[in-house]
Amino acid sequence: MSWVFGLSPGTLKWYNIRQLILKCFLTLVILGFLGLPADPVFSSPGTMPGFSSHYLNSGIPGNTVLIVGGIQGDEPGGFNAASLIVTHYKIMSGAVRVVPNLNFPSIIKRSRGLHGDMNRKFDLLNSGDPEFNTIKRIKKMILEPAVDLVLNLHDGSGFYSKIHENKNRHPGRWGQCIIVDQEHMPDRFMEKKEKFFQLSRAAWKSADSVNISLLHPGHKFNVKNTKTAQGNREMAKTLTYFALKNNIPAFGIEASKSLSTAKRVYYHLLAVEAFFDQAGIKFSRRFSLTEASIKRAIDQDIEVALGDNRILLTVENVRNRLGFIPLEKEGKLAFQVNHPLMTLIQSGDVYNLFHGNRRLTRLSPQYFEYDFSLKSIGMVVDGESRKVFFGTSVPVKHRFLVNKVQDHRVNIIGFSKRTSQNKSVINESGFVVRKENFIQRFSIDKGGHIFRVEVYTSNRFNGMILVDFRPDRPGRPDQSGDMDLVFKPREKVTKVRFF
Ligand SMILES: [Zn+2]
Ligand 1 centre and the CA of 305: distance in Å? Predict the structure, then answer.
């Protein structure tokens, strides 16, 4: 998935450094991947965790849509849908800005809001509020002159219905609808952005479009008008109403919390794409809109890099625990992720890797001194000689061999070779290794396909390489995808560090 960020001319920004749990102070910095000296963005430890912003610009003039996900941390349909737009969509005309993780700390903690409901902070807010800066930043993004339309993605309770049908389907519910604050924009708005002047009509247009592709008749989308200006005090404090007051048409999209996350994402994407159509934004998507493809796309090609880029872990279908990760003794622990919902959080002696509200794996480190003198090793992969850099993953079809490196020891985790005296071989370079030579439980993935090759100089760690025997490893087009399946090599991944 790393390459996805290279798809568009846009950039991935991690706005600031995050402190994700009170126990530890984690400071994150942006640097370029592959050791490129990008401008680091520093922030002092202890500041609130930030959200990331992704600009998908086609370069072809057109409308700009701002999409916000994760304003409430317990709504995975919304934040996963927004993330998929970042990682799996290509915008072909107009532009899309995405904030997929507005309330990131609450997402990680599976909380609606660690500091109260963030979607009630857009009217008046005390400068002492812990989320004051987050609100200030997102407000600024909403008010950028280029923004023509704002979509705020939510997961709502039950199913909204104009009439009372049952306890889960009535006018007080929120799921499966598009929210407008009023019938149409204020009259003063008329000349400027006529297209979405009729809020309700535009919402119905999108709802009707969603309703063509329902998975079940009971999932029908409606339009809910909160009539905010007529004394709806709660709604007057929301993000969409803030946008509207500032002459920017805004809609809430609510998928039902009664549905699975993949189904919620399905409806979110249908609705977002309907708004893209209305806004004249052309796009392509790297997967087909089915529940199975959505499920797969959410975790596809996700990676974390550690140890000064000398360790790369492919964490799609990763095991629940990974042990003996060789981290630098007394070094500043840094990591890098290639997905806006991923982060690493220290908890005692281990590091938990999160993808949104799910813990993917726990990493148990083993500390070493690092030797930075060696950057790559020679390998023969399926009969072909190659120079392989540490911190990368090598696709292998049948077999590989690591060339001998003077004074260095190669440790192929899960592979063991015995001497004629039945002693284990210490240095595993120079042997042809096939998948069946591995003990499966040493793979880093649950499928038993991806293994670690580590290089040491006496007791110092040089680096790790993954050998990936997956038949459908990244780089091969997703068979279930329906368009634009050209693989682009990795160009750029955001590097996120913490100290
Ligand atoms: Zn919500």
Answer: 32
Q: State the number of CA atoms in the 13 A half-sphere of 236 facing the CB.
A: 8
β-strands 52-57, 12-14: how paired? antiparallel
Structural domain contains residue 225: yes
pLDDT for the residue numbered 49 = 54
From ligand 1's centre to the CA of 154, what distance in Å? 4
For the four alpha carbons of 254, 260, 261 and 265, in that order, the dihedral sign comes to: negative
Residues 164 and 248 in one domain: yes
Residue 451, CB-side half-sphere exposure with 13 Å CA sphere: 23
Asked if residue 470 and residue 343 are part of one domain, the reply reads yes
pLDDT in tens, 58-97: 999 999 999 999 999 999 999 999 999 999 999 999 999 9
For 137, the domain range is: 48-285
pLDDT tens profile 145-172: 999 999 999 999 999 999 999 999 999 9
Q: Can you give the pLDDT at residue 258?
A: 98
**97 Cα–ligand 1 center, Å:** 19
For residue 32, being part of any structural domain is answered with no
Cα(281) to centroid of ligand 1, in Å? 25
From ligand 1's centre to the CA of 103, what distance in Å?
A: 11
The CATH number given to whatever domain includes residue 146 is 3.40.630.10
pLDDT of residue 186: 83
The predicted pLDDT at position 441 comes to 96
CA of 109 from ligand 1 middle (Å) equals 16
Average of pLDDT values for 396-419? 93
Is there a single domain that holds both residue 269 and residue 184? yes
306 and 275 housed in the same domain: no
In a domain? residue 342: yes
Query: Can you tell me the mean pLDDT for 257-263?
Result: 98
37: Cβ–Cβ under 8 A, 6 or more apart, which residues? 31
Mark whether 270 and 331 lie in a shared domain. Answer: no
Q: Does pLDDT of 189 surpass 80?
A: no
3-state DSSP assignment of residue 262:
helix
* Cα 325 to ligand 1 centroid, rounded to whole Å: 38
Which of residues 256, 285, 314 is at a domain's end? 285
Give the domain-ending residue among 234, 256, 285. 285
Side chain identity at 199, as an amino acid letter?
L
CA–centroid distance, residue 70 to ligand 1 (Å): 8
Residue 282, exposed/middle/buried by CB under 10 A (0-12, 13-18, 19+)?
middle
Tell me: do 65 and 182 sit in the same domain: yes
| Beta strands 450-457 and 409-412, pairing class | antiparallel
For residue 71, report the distance from its CA to the centre of ligand 1, in Å. 7
**What is the Cα–Cα distance from 358 to 20, expressed in whole angstroms?**
15
240 plus 363 within the same structural domain: no
* pLDDT more than 70, % of the chain: 84
Residues 343 and 270 in one domain: no
Q: Is residue 336 part of a domain?
A: yes
Q: How many domains does the chain have?
A: 2
pLDDT band at 498 (very low <50, low <70, confident <90, very high): very low
